[in-house]
Amino acid sequence: MVVQSVEHTRGRLSWDTVGVGASTLCLIHCVLTPIALAFAPVLSEFLPGDTLVHRVVIVLVVAIGLFAFIPGYRKHRRWIVFLPMLAGLWAIGLGAFGDSFMGPWTEKCITILGSTLIITAHGLNRTFCKYCDACSSGGDDGRCGE
């Protein structure tokens, strides 16, 4: 039973790591694309910065978030992890779908804020899961957040 718990934990932490990586790539994309465009106007058509890319990425971020957060929440039962996640998803969604009423710099700033919030949420999820692992190794059969 302990081995199964450890394997389950490794799988969940893996999804949190993927989530942090995806959000970090989003953040790097948001920061570097305007710089790359300024220095390479000829290549601007080939850089991943159009609306379709942003809308596909938001779907991937939501899917990865679900894979990471639901098992983590079931373990630690702390709702606080959903606050930065939902705020981050809202900000990234606004950046991806609100381009018709925002300027490019506003869109970038909102998307960077969203990525940062999602990275924070994944970090909280991992931290709470680690605390629960330490709690359960002490002999307590209950869930940490209960």
Give an overview of the whole structure.
The protein has 146 residues and is an all-alpha fold. The protein has one domain. Helix content is 78%, strand content 0%. The chain has 4 helices and no strands. The chain has helices spanning 2-39, 51-76, 82-97, 104-137. Helix 1 (2-39) runs antiparallel to helix 4, helix 2 runs antiparallel to helix 3 and helix 2 (51-76) runs parallel beside helix 4. The two termini are 21 Å apart.
Task: Describe the secondary structure blueprint for this structure.
Blueprint: H1 2-39, H2 51-76, H3 82-97, H4 104-137
Helix pairs in contact: 1-2, 1-4, 2-3, 2-4, 3-4
Summary?
78% of the residues lie in helices and 0% in strands. It has helices spanning 2-39, 51-76, 82-97, 104-137.
Radius of gyration over all CA atoms, rounded: 18 Å
Count of strand segments: 0
N/C terminus separation = 21 Å
Low-pLDDT windows of residues: 1-9
Mean pLDDT rating:
75
Q: Count of DSSP helices?
A: 4
In sequence order, what are the helices and strands, one letter per element?
HHHH
Helix content: over 70%
Task: Provide key terms for this protein.
mainly alpha; 4 helices; 146 residues; elongated
